[in-house]
Design brief:
Number of domains: 2
Largest sheet: 5 strands, mixed
Structural class: alpha/beta
Strand order of the largest sheet: 2-1-3-13-6
Strand content: 5-15%
Number of helices: 19
Main location: other
CATH class of the largest domain: Alpha Beta
CATH topology of the largest domain: D-Maltodextrin-Binding Protein, domain 2
Distance between the termini: 45 Å
Subcellular location: Cell envelope
Radius of gyration: 21 Å
CATH architecture of the largest domain: 3-Layer(aba) Sandwich
CATH superfamily of the largest domain: Periplasmic binding protein-like II
InterPro entries: Bact_solute-bd_prot1, SBP
Signal peptide: 1-28
Protein name: Probable sugar-binding periplasmic protein
Shape: globular
Helix content: 40-55%
Number of strands: 14
């Protein structure tokens, strides 16, 4: 059973108290902060899209930890709401082009950073990894995904898993389905979805375009397998091949079994319909677990979860990370923020609220929920692949082209053959 929000907060207090006792027992030691400049900064503007829900709660918890670690610095909240981060990214691009960067900004680790790096917008912060011993704190696979031509440009605050199905046991039981079933393939799952459809409830609840791209990537992963899915991004898998065509047909079948009003919803709305028993299933990253827990829902009774059918043993990875922009007004403040998000207590406080898992491998799992403990185990034993919808697999230009093609297909503007051709063109153009 997952702990509800008060339980997570209680654990955070226990964790903080333990860390404080450790600090107090070694007063003669030098401070552990990595901020070494003579002149102390007085503020840091942190630009994110964490403006509501569990994301905002996670940010608030992180800010509280930052205030404890760096009380001399004023935190300036630069969060921008809307569009699953789309509105924030648009405003950020305008500011960067105007040479008005925030002190630090949130971005998905991986290929999403490519455009910023190639444009010379980001500082190489590899030296901070050495200074703070992060190369040993973060898993080797993660370090490899963060490294570009021998340099590292971001520090992750967390790890999320994208390939998760969330389900309502009561809706499944009403359709004559086993609430504990996990399904071995997309084809098996479609049979279950049709059983729900026969009851008059929504089989699959999804939302606006980015959540559709999220669904698309998990179907590609399920049908192609981890190697061929990864090959979509390194050029070894043919986007115009028959295997991709079959996966796109499955994606179309899932859209047909989803809600017609998806374009008017954002992801919390789609998840809420599963909570409320209006829909059976939702495919969403594991930030959704915080939504269920915040609502007081209990795993097994009120909700269940499992890997997207066909992706068992694969961890579809994404990570929120922070960078040091070239020309940041308060670079020492930015380094202080990076210090906090990379620390054990910063990652503990943030991830307890957000539902994700720490990027550090040395954070105790005992403070975290059952789901998070399972995700921690999976991240170290499963095959890791990179998320498309969340910036890890492909640069922004590719994602934009794929999103446009997906939106057109989801609204019935194109057929499967045209959709496949548009996807292939979007990848080739980037």
């Amino acid at each position: 059973m997952h702990p509800a929000r008060p339980r997570r907060r209680a654990l955070a207090v226990v964790a903080a108290a333990a860390l404080l006792l450790t600090a107090c027992s070694s007063e003669a030691e030098e401070p552990t902060t990595a901020l070494t400049t003579a002149a102390q900064p007085d503020e840091v503007e942190v630009f994110t899209w964490w403006a509501s829900g569990s994301e905002k709660l996670g940010l608030d918890s992180l800010v509280a930890t930052f205030a404890e670690q760096h009380p001399e610095i004023t935190f300036v909240n630069g969060s921008v709401a809307g569009g699953g981060g789309g509105a924030a990214k648009d405003l950020l691009q305008s500011r960067l082009e105007a040479n008005d960067p925030p002190d630090t900004f949130q971005a998905h680790a991986g290929a999403e950073l490519t455009d910023y790096i190639e444009a010379g917008r980001l500082e190489d912060i590899s030296s901070l990894y050495d200074e703070w011993e992060l190369r040993s704190a973060f898993p080797e696979d993660l370090i490899e995904r963060l490294t570009v031509d021998g340099k590292i440009y971001s520090i992750p605050s967390n790890i999320h898993r994208a390939n998760v199905v969330w389900a309502n046991p009561g809706v499944l039981s009403a359709a004559g389905l086993d609430p504990e079933a996990t399904y071995a393939s997309i084809d098996e799952w479609i049979v279950a979805l049709r059983a729900v459809e026969a009851t008059g409830r929504t089989p699959l609840s999804i939302a606006t375009t980015w959540t559709q791209v999220h669904l698309l990537e998990t179907v590609l992963l399920a049908d192609l397998g981890a190697d061929a899915y990864s090959g979509l991004w390194d050029g070894t898998t043919d986007w115009e091949g028959p295997e991709v065509r079959a996966a796109l047909e499955d994606f179309g079948a899932l859209l047909d079994l989803s809600n017609d009003d998806r374009e008017s919803l954002d992801w919390p709305d789609a998840t809420q319909r599963v909570m409320d028993g209006q829909a059976a299933f939702n495919v969403m990253g594991d930030w959704a677990v915080a939504e269920f827990e915040d609502a007081g829902k209990v795993r097994g009774t009120d909700f269940t979860y499992f890997p997207v059918p066909g992706t068992q043993g694969v961890f579809d990875f994404l990570a929120d990370s922070f960078v040091l922009p070239v020309g940041a007004p308060h670079p020492d403040g930015a380094r202080a923020w990076l210090d906090t998000i990379s620390s054990v207590d910063g990652q503990t406080a943030f991830n307890l609220e957000k539902g994700s898992i720490p990027a550090r491998g040395d954070v105790s799992s005992s403070y975290f929920s059952d789901y998070q403990q399972g995700a921690m185990e999976s991240f170290y034993v499963d095959r890791i692949v990179s998320s498309l919808a969340h910036g890890a697999a492909a640069p922004n230009g590719t994602l934009t082209g794929i999103s446009t093609a997906t939106g057109r297909f989801a609204t019935g503007a194109t057929d499967v053959a045209a959709f496949q051709a548009e996807l292939a063109a979007a990848v080739q153009a980037s």
